[in-house]
Amino acid sequence: MAGVSFVLPVGGGGGGAHSVVQEVDAMRDLGVEARILVNQANAPYFRAAYDRFPWVEDGGVASFDGARELAALLAETDVAVATTNTSAHAIADAHKTTRGLGFRHAYYVQDYEPLFYRAGSTEHALAIASYAVLRDCTHFAKTRWLAGMVEAAHGHAAALVVPSVDHGIYRPVRRAPAPARHVVAMVRPATPRRAPRRTLRMLARLAAGEFGPVALTAFGCEAEELAAHDLALPDGVKLAGRLKQTEVAELLRATDIFLDLSDYQGFGRTAAEAMACGAVVLAPALGGAVDFIADGESGFLADTTDDAAVANAIRRMLSLSEAEYRRMRLAALEAVSGFTPVRAAISELRALGLG
Amino acid sequence: MHAEMAPKRMDGSAETREANPDIMPPAGGEVRPMAGDAGLIGWAEPDPLSPEAPPEIGLDVEGGSTRIVTAAPPRDSQGRFRLSWSLPHSLRDGVTRRVRAFHMISGRELDGSPVTLAAPPLPAALPVEAPEEAPAVGLRWPDGLAVTRAATGLLPIAEGMLAEAMAPAAHLRSELLADLAEGPDALRRGVRLLADVVAPAIRLYLRLDAADGPVPAGHHMEREVTAWLPEATEAHVKARFDVTLERREGPAFHTLRRLRRGTLFRRPTDHPVSFELTAEEAALLAEGNLWLGLAALSAKGLSARLPGPAPDPLAQPARFEDARLDGAFAHAVGFVRVHGEARREAHPLLPGLWQAPPPLAQAARPAAQAHPFTQVILPVYNGHDEVRACLHALRAAATGPMQVVMVDDGSRDFTAEMLRAEAAADPRFILHRRDINRGYTKSINEGVLLTGADWVVVLNSDTLVSKGWLDRLHAAAQARPGTGMVGPLSNAATWQSIPAAKRPDGAWSTNALIEPRHLERLQAILDEVSERAYPEFPVLNGFCTLIARAVFDRVGLYDEDAFPTGYGEETDLCLRARQAGFRLTLADDCFVFHHKSVTFGQVERTRLSRQGGLEMTNKHSGVIVPALERIMQDCAPLGRLRARLSNLAAELN
């Protein structure tokens, strides 16, 4: 069976890394020699973050220091998969160090990364160039929006693959009735596109009772981070802090309504995970969440740059009758039930011509 | 001429211009310390060509910056202007300093220079004086706007600007970059440094000025640094880049601290720096000895715009909470236009984010049925016979108001005489002659600047046009509103070639079955069989292109910097036009014959073609050329036309 190497120069813990790890896990279960290559500086953190997978310490993760070492690792593989814009450049740089490397290129586009940076900045230039530095590259993405952006902006046909959610931890549980809906939102002060100010603004309106009685929880940061960014948590909102993956799952299992008020979402992983736990979600209409949320049926979508539109959507969510809420909850669970690591792995192997 | 203004010989004796008009000794003067060593005084001669203008004197203060002082009346008996300069308070520190004085016009060092100044320090209670007003950094270029020098030590480039190239670089060329175009890609005033070989570091030092007087320690400064590599040496070229704070110490700089490390590309990128001054740095700023150091590491050169204050981030109201997204999405729209449809006004992936395409150009038509007045820019460099045939074809093919601007780029054979004769014979033919060959791209840019019509055609001089060709090109522009550029079909014009675009071996076809004598017959066939679908193309071959003036107004001229000899300049303009929202339309009913003659030999062509390709890859990183080629390859109307012309050889003969 062909060898597939995902180049993932990160410390782990983020949604993109979770995807790759659980999909590599599934590929290995399917008998594929799949592995992850991490740069040396991040390797200890990465191994610690995913030590629950036995293969992480058993040949499934290798580390590299510089282009030459990466080239040596890639010499043994059939397909090198870039997973971030920096990893695309790392693979291209590896090619420059060593002649005759015969592996094929692929790019797992997990977000349209030029949107992460200011146009004109070095980082933006690198993100744009990542779509050009790999020759004869197979692109694949997990939402139509991401695939469409790569094709529309750079002319690369990108295969659509299945997203994956770890249903082992993101699953519904039986809950005791509560007097008020539990509304949960993620607040990431250091990531402006996740719109922490908008999120806190809407949490404040919720806490003030504008939409009726609710219990409110925010997570994704510590109080010190909020203060450092000149932000304040509204009274009446509980801050759960920075959570590990299993802790996020535990919180989402106790969530009735999940708010993702980001400017846009390439995929919307946390919303999908919340749906897998049975929550009703509100996500940005701009981006990839439209693939798995049918507005008003399996969740809600809004132009998140418009506070009135967001408030209107929250009002609709909190005015659902019990029967409507139950119906939407089931629709949400059904919408993401197919997002399994095995299906994701199979779709990626097919995109790579290996399935 | 006043007798007392006679310039001096080097030995100090006077000589009048009338005595020997060929001898014009350089202007000079004399200086000496003023009382108390607190400054210098003297007399400076005016420029003999501008005897009434007070001369400027450059003062190179040891351990500090170069200052420009303007002498002023009264004048002495020799007509010299009085010069007086006091040590600024920031330099009244008791340190002995030597000051060299140079005449800014002649470059001559004044008699008595250097002057040693050792003024006692001022009492501490005195208020800090505002620094002497120095000319803005980069305002004066006393050694010339473009100069190549031996890379030995620090090289003065301009006012407040020094450079150096590390060994093994032996030479360093510096050039002023002036405003070239409007729009986001416009080059503001800047500098380009290019060494003869790759050096461990190419450094540029720019003096920081305290615009509003002395500042205290802790003062916050922000500078917008934009830098890039001046040459594409490989695909996706990049180099490490450091921005530092520096202090000048005699012949060298001392690094105070590094402000940022980044990456340089061929395309300009921003490297904003934001810092708070230490007490030492504030003092250095006050005395004009705090410098910004820009270093390209393991590079052949470095280009940079002169740093300015950081732009106000709140200048434009942001739609998104992440204010970077507005610009990043706008950038993505440009790519979507290049790879998709240029004129599209909305996209399902980018709802509500689409910038309006430029308004439709409506050129005035002087009379019913006639095409709008069109100026044809014809760059010429030798090629007597083909050029003459081209001119005769242009004259014979004219059906409406037109003018041909022949830009002779220093032809060395009989071509120059022939062009003069043609221009003399027909008032519609204008000759613009340059004695020195400066390259194709400069030629066509000059042509564009010489013209003023709403529409111009940039036409290679080895072409033959057929009767009504401008009518057909304009018809294509009219058929597709929003068109900024139109290209015809040809025998040798890459994807616009018919009947074949490529040869069986994959090389571009020149369709040798078509000869110049077939021109009218082939046009007649096209008149009969063309669908007149006027398909939209992502790029057009540059051999013959009708271009709306609005395109140049919006995106600027051809890029002389990246593509000086051609080989990519037209593709670059096409991509910029598409990004701006102009359509590129193929006139699939118009044929222009192309001899495809060559200016350069095979080896040079290969080199230039490779260099042009590298520049294109770097300048338009993110534009995927094979994807654009697929669009042209898959053009259905053209495919049907090629099928229809499969028996063209028989039809022509």
Task: Describe the overall structure.
The complex is a heterodimer of chains A (355) and B (653). With 355 residues, chain A is of the alpha/beta class. Chain A has 2 domains: 174 residues, 3-Layer(aba) Sandwich (Rossmann fold); 156 residues, 3-Layer(aba) Sandwich (Rossmann fold), CATH 3.40.50.2000. Helix content of chain A is 38%, strand content 17%. Chain A has a 7-stranded parallel β-sheet, with helices on both faces. In chain A, strands 10-9-8-11-12-13 form a 6-stranded parallel β-sheet, sandwiched between helices. Chain B has 3 domains: 115 residues, Immunoglobulin-like; 160 residues, Galactose-binding domain-like (Jelly Rolls, Sandwich), CATH 2.60.120.260; 279 residues, Spore Coat Polysaccharide Biosynthesis Protein SpsA, Chain A, CATH 3.90.550. In chain B, 22% of the residues lie in helices and 29% in strands. Chain B has 13 helices and 28 strands. In chain B, the strands form 5 sheets. In chain B, strands 9, 10, 11, 12, 13, 15, 16, 17, 18 and 20 form a 10-stranded antiparallel β-sheet that branches. Chain B has an 8-stranded mixed β-sheet with strand order 23-22-21-24-27-26-28-25, with helices on both faces. Chain B has a 4-stranded antiparallel β-sheet with strand order 1-2-6-5, with no helix packed on it. Chain B starts with 28 loop residues before the first strand and ends with a helix. The N terminus of chain B is likely disordered. Classes of the chains: A alpha/beta (355), B alpha+beta (653). At the A-B interface, helix 5, helix 6 and helix 7 of A face strand 17, strand 18, helix 2 and helix 11 of B.
- The helix tally of chain A amounts to 13
Inertia-based shape of chain A: globular
> Would you give the CATH topology of the largest domain in chain A?
Rossmann fold
Shape of chain B: elongated
Kindly give the count of domains of chain A.
2
Work out the helix count of chain B: 13
Q: Pick out the low-confidence regions of chain B.
A: 1-23, 123-132, 180-187
The span between the termini of chain A is: 10 Å
- Work out the largest interface and the residue count of each chain: A-B, 40 and 42 residues
Low-confidence stretches of chain A: none
Average pLDDT over all residues of chain B: 84
CATH topology call of the largest domain in chain B: Spore Coat Polysaccharide Biosynthesis Protein SpsA, Chain A
Gyration radius from CA atoms of chain B, angstroms: 30 Å
Strand order of the largest sheet of chain A: 3-2-1-4-5-6-7
How many E-type strands of chain B? 28
| Main β-sheet description of chain A | 7 strands, parallel
Give the ordered list of helices and strands of chain A. EHEHEHEHEHEHEEHEHEHEHEEHHH
Mean pLDDT of chain A, to the nearest integer, reads 95
Per CATH, the class of the largest domain in chain B reads Alpha Beta
Report the radius of gyration of chain A as a whole number of Å: 21 Å
Q: How many individual domains of chain B?
A: 3
